[in-house]
Automatic annotation (TrEMBL), chains A, B:
This is Putative phosphoenolpyruvate synthase regulatory protein. PANTHER family: PYRUVATE, PHOSPHATE DIKINASE REGULATORY PROTEIN 1, CHLOROPLASTIC. ADP binds at G157, V158, S159, R160, C161, G162, K163, T164. GO terms for molecular function: ADP binding; ATP binding; phosphotransferase activity, phosphate group as acceptor; protein serine/threonine kinase activity. It comes from Paracandidimonas soli. NCBIfam families: PRK05339.1.
Length: 277, 277
C-alpha cells in the first residue's frame, strides 16, 4: 500500500482513561485542517508489558500504512514511555514534556506516580459530585420544587432549549447543584415568572435558542405538532426573552454553543468558581 | 509578604472553556505532591485586550505573593499568547508546544484558528450526544423498557451501585445510549435475570460495589433503614455478583473507581470505540 498523505492514524495512549488526552489531542489536531486524522484511544496501559504490546500495534499500523502514526502519550511510567517511544511513530509526550518543564522551573523533582488525574470513588469531592448529579436529576424540568433553596443555580427557558444537558454537565463536571425550570405559555400569558421561583431570583440563569433551531429540535420529538411549529417556537422564544429581560435574569443563546461552553458561561456569570473533575 | 514556597497559584488561561486545560493541568500538577496548588481558571480569553487584562491580573498576583505564578495556556492567537508570556509568570504553552512539534514532524503549517475543541450546537455529532442523553434519562433505573433494543449498553446492578452517574457520563462524554436496570431482591429469589433483559443479554454490563460502601451510600438516602443495613447490602451484593457470574455478564466493582474510569472500562469491555466529546 502506498502512503496516503491526507489520512493519518493517531494513537492516544494513556495509563488511565485517556479522555483528557483525547480531548486535548482533538484540539491540537484541529489546527491541521488539511489532514484527516483517525483517532484510536488505548486506555489503561498500566504496565510495561501492555506498553510493549501497544508498541507492536503501532508498528503494524506504520507498516500497513507506510507512514508513521502520531502517538499522543500521557504515560507516567518511564519504562512504558520508552517502549512506545521506540516504536515507529511520531511520539508526543503530553505529560512528560510539562512535568519536565515544571521540574526545571520549580527546581524540584516530581513523584512519577500513575493515574492521579481523576478522583477515585471514596473521596469527599467524589461524594459531592454524585450528590450534585442526584440533585440535578431530582430537580429536572421543575418536577420537584422542594429543595430549590439548596440549588447553586436554577436554569430557566422554554421547553427543549438545552436546560437538561447543561444542568447535568454542570453537576457532572463541576459538582454544581443545577436545577432547571421550564418557562411555559401560561407564564407568558400571566407575564411573570412562576411564583415558585420568586424566592430564588438571584440563582436564576436563562437559556434561549433560535426559533428555527428550536422548531427542528421539537420536531424530532413531536413531528408536525403545534408545539414544534415555527410559529409557536417564535412566540415562546420572544416571550421568554422579554420576560428574562424584564426580570433582569442573565441569559444567553445556546444555538451555536456546545454544552461545555454554555456551562462555563453560566458558572462565570453566576460567580461560581468550581474546580473541574 | 514573603514567599510561601509550598503554595503556588496556577492560572489556566483558555480562549474557550478551559476545562480540558484544567483537567490536564491537574494531572501534571498531581506529580508535585510537595506543593499545594491553587487553580484559577480564566475562560473565554478571546481577544488580545482580554489577554492584556489577564496579564495584569497575573502580575498583581506575582507581586502580592512575591512569587511567579504558573500559567497553563491553551490560547491559539499569537498576539494573546505574547501578552501573557510577557507577564511575570512561569508560562507553559500547552497548545503551542505540540502544534509546533506537529508542524515540524509533519512538515506543514497549522491554521491557528481559535476554539475548535468542542463541537458547536448544530453538528450531527452534537445531536447524537443530546439524543443519547435523552435516551439515558428516559431509560434510567428500568423505568421505560420500550426502546431497550436501541440501547448501546444496559448497565445492571443493585440499587445505588453507580449505574445512573455512569450511564449519564457515557451519554454525555461518548454519545453512547446507556440504559440501566436495577437488580432487586425479587430477582435474587427467583435466581434469574429480569425477563425484560433476556433479549438484550449481549448488551448487559454489571456494576458491583463493596457492601460496606453501599451501606454508607444508602444510609445517606434512607438513614437506619433495612434497605441501608450492612446485612441487606451484603446479601444483595453477593446475590447480584452470583447472578452476573452465572449469566456470564461482564462486570466490575465501582468502589474505588471514578466515573471516568468505570465508563472507560465499560466501553472497552463491550467493544464500543467512541470518540470523546
Amino acid at each position: 500500500m502506498t502512503s496516503s498523505s491526507n489520512v493519518r492514524t493517531v494513537f492516544i495512549v494513556s495509563d488511565s482513561t485517556g479522555v483528557t488526552a483525547e480531548t486535548f489531542s482533538n484540539s491540537v489536531l484541529s489546527q491541521f485542517e488539511q489532514i484527516k486524522f483517525e483517532l484510536i484511544r488505548i486506555p489503561f496501559i498500566d504496565s510495561p508489558e501492555k506498553a510493549a504490546a501497544t508498541a507492536q500495534r503501532i508498528n503494524l499500523c506504520a507498516q500497513a500504512q507506510q507512514q508513521r502514526p502520531l502517538v499522543f502519550s500521557t504515560l507516567v511510567n518511564q519504562d512504558s514511555v520508552l517502549k512506545i517511544r521506540e516504536a515507529d511513530c511520531i511520539f508526543l509526550d503530553l505529560f512528560g514534556t510539562f512535568v519536565q518543564n515544571l521540574e526545571d522551573a520549580l527546581g524540584i523533582k516530581s513523584s512519577h506516580s500513575v493515574g492521579r488525574s481523576h478522583m477515585g470513588g471514596s473521596s469527599k469531592e467524589y461524594s459531592n459530585r454524585i450528590e450534585a448529579i442526584n440533585f440535578t436529576l431530582a430537580h429536572d424540568d421543575g418536577q420537584f420544587i422542594h429543595g430549590l433553596k439548596e440549588a447553586d443555580v436554577i436554569l430557566v427557558g422554554v421547553s427543549r432549549c438545552g436546560k437538561t444537558p447543561t444542568s447535568l454537565y454542570l453537576a457532572m463536571q463541576y459538582a454544581v447543584k443545577a436545577a432547571n425550570f421550564p418557562l411555559i405559555p401560561e407564564d407568558f400569558e400571566r407575564g411573570s415568572l412562576p411564583a415558585t421561583l420568586h424566592p430564588y431570583r438571584h440563582k436564576l440563569f436563562g437559556l434561549s435558542i433560535q426559533p428555527s433551531r428550536l422548531s427542528e429540535v421539537r420536531n424530532e420529538r413531536r413531528p408536525n405538532s403545534e408545539y414544534a411549529s415555527l410559529k409557536q417556537c417564535r412566540y415562546e422564544v420572544a416571550e421568554a426573552e422579554r420576560l428574562m429581560r424584564m426580570e433582569n435574569i442573565p441569559w444567553l443563546s445556546t444555538t451555536t454553543k456546545s454544552i461545555e461552553e454554555i456551562s462555563s458561561k453560566v458558572l462565570e456569570d453566576v460567580g461560581l468558581n468550581r474546580r473541574v473533575f
